[in-house]
Design brief:
The chain has three helices and six strands, in the order αβαβαββββ. By secondary structure, it is α+β, with helices and mostly antiparallel strands. The protein has one domain: RRM (RNA recognition motif) domain (Alpha-Beta Plaits), CATH 3.30.70. It has a four-stranded antiparallel beta sheet. Strands 4-5 form a two-stranded antiparallel sheet.
């Protein structure tokens, strides 16, 4: 797998921001097929930091439904994989630089 395909986007939520400040832990949405070693090398390459640990979790898909004129429409939101990357002491990743 190419390194450009591993990281999809950073997760910018309130919980992720608190983890960045307190634990130096950054959250990313990653490809479902990516393993921890690929995620580690991708973060080190793109952001220029040294990674201590990588934890992954798969968020399950959720059932969604909405009422329309045609009736009830039901579907499923897809599942995705999250990676929680802890960087070394004194190093940070600036996720807001490209916004």
């Amino acid at each position: 797998m190419k390194l450009t395909d591993v990281l999809v986007k950073p997760l910018l939520t309130e919980k992720a921001n608190k983890q960045q400040e307190k634990l130096r832990c950054y959250a990313f949405k990653v490809d479902r097929k990516a393993n921890k070693l690929e995620i580690k090398t991708a973060v080190e390459t793109f952001y220029g930091v040294s990674v201590l640990t990588v934890n992954t979790a798969v968020a399950p898909g959720k059932n969604k439904s909405r009422q329309t004129k045609a009736g009830l429409i039901q579907g499923v939101k897809p599942s995705y994989k999250k990676a929680f990357v802890t960087v070394a002491e004194g190093e940070t990743i600036d996720l807001y630089a490209n916004i």
